[in-house]
Amino acid sequence: MNLISEYKGIVTKKFNDFFFVDILDNGELDKSKRFLCKSRKSLKHQQKYIFVGDIVTIRSINHKDKTAVIDDLLDRENILHRPAVANISDIYIVHSFKHPELNYSQLSDFLINAEFLRVKVSLILTKSDLIPPEKCNSLFEKFRNWGYEPKILSLTSNDELNGLVNELKANKCSIFMGPSGVGKTTLLNKIIPNINRATSAVSNKIKRGKNTTRNVELFQLSKESYIVDTPGFNILNNYMRPEDIALLFPEFEIQINQNRVRCKFRDCLHIDEPGCNLNKNFERYSFYKYLIENSKILCHQSQVN
Ligand SMILES: Nc1nc2c(ncn2[C@@H]2O[C@H](COP(=O)(O)OP(=O)(O)OP(=O)(O)O)[C@@H](O)[C@H]2O)c(=O)[nH]1
Ligand SMILES: [Mg+2]
Ligand SMILES: [Zn+2]
């Protein structure tokens, strides 16, 4: 007889009113520790909504049917709103060089919104087999100037894969995010071979993904590390205060945090304030100015309304 009546678990998948919860005990990769759960009604009344990545306690455990009830939600480290995932430690923005075509402004939007969560953000570029090596090298340099050292992957080579896997194993909970068809699930299938999640070719005509992955799902990579695969989606821009935007640009953040350069004013927006010494000679500076202007307008509108 099993005397334990309550377990701690991690939510791996959510669909309608149900959740899959994996028990967090000895961390072994064991399917039998997965329970299909509903959440206790009063949790909703307390506005405690549960997302993939949440740590919960479960009760009313039926070991035969593998069902249980989520009894409580433990404190979260953070929450990403779209897609809704909790407790992320590392974000990997995934884009392909081609099919679908690399779109710089879309990629920049993804990066800025990922930086908003204030966790480590990395860039993965896939399908390098579809472009000439020189093009690949020049794009590598471009994104290094944005402050990211992209990991370049392709179906035909595993050169960068081992390094990436070791990195993912050292992270607590990594998430793959990016448009449909860029190869997020293909990559996950390579990293955790027995999961065999569905992937599909991008449409021939418009070279766009087919939204193959429909749900956010969390997979265990090793004893204490997880990876979340997400459906391709359009980014939902977070509202950012003008004074917070510089920290979302590694081009500025490095200068500010290394404290090599100082601005005259503490609330400097690094636009055209006299005495601002930050280097603005970088490719995405006009995008930065655009975000500041946009944020000021939104801020003004909210004060008027
Ligand atoms: N040529 C080439 N094709 C790739 C590479 N990586 C993935 N693909 C192909 O790209 C297509 C889309 O891959 P998926 O893994 O389904 O893409 P996804 O990002 O998960 O897409 P959604 O689930 O719709 O968000 C598949 O046909 C893959 O075989 C690559 O490195 N090179
Ligand atoms: Mg997918
Ligand atoms: Zn400044």
How is this structure best described in words?
Helix content is 25%, strand content 24%. The protein has 305 residues and is an alpha/beta fold. It has 3 domains: 7-76, Nucleic acid-binding proteins (OB fold (Dihydrolipoamide Acetyltransferase, E2P)); 81-229, 3-Layer(aba) Sandwich (Rossmann fold); 242-304, no CATH class. Guanosine-5'-triphosphate binds next to helix 5. Zinc ion (ZN) binds at residues 263, 268, 270, 273, 276, 278.
Continuous helix count: 7
Tell me the overall shape: globular
Spell the H/E element sequence. Answer: EEEHEEEEEHEHEHEHEEHH
Could you say what the CATH topology of the largest domain is called? Rossmann fold
The CATH homologous superfamily of the largest domain corresponds to P-loop containing nucleotide triphosphate hydrolases
Number of domains: 3
The neighbouring-strand order within the major sheet is 10-9-8-11-13-12
Write the CATH architecture name of the largest domain.
Answer: 3-Layer(aba) Sandwich
Question: What is the number of beta strands?
Answer: 13
Q: What is the terminal separation in angstroms?
A: 62 Å
